Amino acid sequence: MRSCWPHSRRRIRDVVRVLTHLLYLHGFRSSPQSFKARWMAGWVAAHRPDLVWACPQLPPSPAAALDDIRAITAGWPAATTGVIGSSLGGFYATIFAESRACRAVLVNPAVDPARDLAAHIGRQTMFHAADASFDFRAGYVDELRAMTPPTPLAHPGNILAIVAKGDEVLDWREMAARYAHGPLKLIAGSDHGLSDFESHVPDLLRHLQL
Q1: How far apart are the first and last CA of the chain?
Q2: Annotated domain spans of the chain
Q3: 106 vs 160: CA distance, rounded Å
Q4: How far apart are CA 123 and CA 106, in angstroms?
Q5: How far apart are CA 152 and CA 181, in angstroms?
Q6: What kind of architecture, by CATH, is found in domain 11-208?
Q7: If we measure between CA atoms, which residue out of 55, 87, 46 comes closest to residue 193?
Q8: What is the mean pLDDT of residues 126-150?
Q9: Helices (H), 105-189
Q10: What pTM was computed for the model?
Q11: What does DSSP say about strands 103-107 and 81-86: parallel, antiparallel, or unpaired?
Q12: Angle between helical axes of 62-73 and 88-100 (0-180°, round to 10)
């Protein structure tokens, strides 16, 4: 049996495709300056400088955001592409992962942002730049509703959802139900921003094969 082990290891390496491209999508009113986005950018710089990394500032229009995501990732190989999305970015990441059949990690993902953000129409300030603001228009709610992925998801096994029961913004039960057919990590406490993000990074890296 021991003589077969090196061959088995080679076959395993052939099957497991190391990630070459990684996309990070921030949430509503957030930016590439969020704690999780900066943490991941630092990890990539330190451990995988060869990785193609993108963390764009997404526009408030969901349709425009998806257009930007598609433009940035045009030509990226689906088999070795991964996406991380937080909150509204998790909603976008679901759409992206489903369309590319690629791997994704979602952190407290928005399940029905059209419903939830209807109460936020109007002038909004940015979390990481108090002097920056934008208009969230009624038409953006319609854009969100039109792009909602179908249920059930086509590739649930590709998506790891990390859901905090202590989320003060979104209902963890709704998130858990939406992503129940794929790998799901339920956290007893924490919060919407997943302030203990670093402790969950090993699961993220394992799922994305980083």
Answers
A1: 29
A2: 11-208
A3: 6
A4: 27
A5: 9
A6: 3-Layer(aba) Sandwich (3.40)
A7: 87
A8: 92
A9: 113-117, 138-147, 172-178
A10: 0.91
A11: parallel
A12: 50
